[in-house]
Amino acid sequence: MTQNEPTGEPGRHMSAEIAEQPEVFARLLDRRTEIAEVARQVAERRPRFALLAARGSSDHAALYAKYLIEVLLQLPCGLVSPSTTTLYGAEPDLTDVLLVSVSQSGGSPDLLEVTEAARRRGALTVAVTNTADSPLNRAAELDVDITAGKELAVAATKTYSASLLALYLLVDAVRGGTGEAAAGLPELARATLDGSAEAVEEAVRRYRFVARMVTTGRGYSSATAAEAALKLAETSYLAARAYSGADLLHGPVAAVDEQTGVLAICSEGRGGAAMREVLDVVRGRGADVCAVGSAAAQVPAALRVEVPACAEELAPVLEVLPVQRLALGLALARGGDPDRPRGLAKVTRTR
């Protein structure tokens, strides 16, 4: 599909791909044995720390993986700056380091170069992609196929959530888990999409004319806040900024007022509990708060989009679903076509 190719009804691809996610999760869960084999090889190498390389929505999946690795594996973990390799030619010693490259297409030149360079420098490299025969998969020593199927909308939806689940299954298997906590996700995803529809429609009506939004979350949900801001910016052209709840209170909250919409990701667990104080401050400044997540009913907000509860480390897989629907609805309400955001293509090639 080219930028000028007609797509029929605006948003039809994005809408269909959002609805497809329960089936995508079921397919991915059926491949737990294959992912566990990759995890076994990672565990045998006993990496001393981990690095994650990604761009765009995949960068937010990598942020989620950073929490998984640091909390569940107790390994130090960092996000790679690809330009240190591609522009500055840095050559760090990566012996006994795990590098996980996350890319839906597996075709970004900078991620390919980072992965090739890391492997030469001694890293164990793992590609997590939606394209099994991509250059990135060939460059990495190991690979995980997220099996989301072809994604036609420019804005990533099913490939993003599938990346999250694949990364969880990989990290859980490295620590010796079986992925049991994720077994019910397909049904929970259906319940999330069905149960949140009315509240999302109300949020679309509420924020249709808003000029700027802040998205925020703590812990695992920081990744969802970052992805929410990207989706709102690329589909609805909103001035949306993401902050962790902690960072929001360290200065940016001064810019929050009655004209600001705040999308707060609040799921049950330590991250959601830490958001209560943040939202007390934000509400005190007059902001209009929409809380999304399994703990939405427990925080101060003008509007709540509730999501079924699950293990805290899996909450981002579910809580992003109504966020995607909100981005879709706002884009359509504001007269846009989220399948064809202006100036964007499905694969962005950077170096």
From TrEMBL:
One Pfam assignment? SIS
Q: What biological processes does GO assign it?
A: carbohydrate derivative metabolic process
For whether the record's keyword set contains Repeat, the answer is: yes
InterPro entries reported in the protein's UniProt record? GlmS/AgaS_SIS (IPR035466), GlmS/FrlB_SIS (IPR035490), SIS_dom (IPR001347), SIS_dom_sf (IPR046348)
Q: Report the GO molecular function annotations.
A: carbohydrate derivative binding
Q: What's in the keyword line of the UniProt record?
A: Repeat
| Residues spanning the membrane | none
Quick check: keyword Ribonucleoprotein in the entry? no
Which residue spans adopt a coiled-coil conformation according to this UniProt entry?
Answer: none
The segment(s) forming the SIS domain are: 38-180, 200-341
SUPFAM superfamilies, per database record: SIS domain
- Protein name as catalogued: Glutamine--fructose-6-phosphate transaminase
In its UniProt entry, the species of origin is given as: Streptoalloteichus hindustanus
Q: What is the lineage of its organism?
A: Bacteria, Bacillati, Actinomycetota, Actinomycetes, Pseudonocardiales
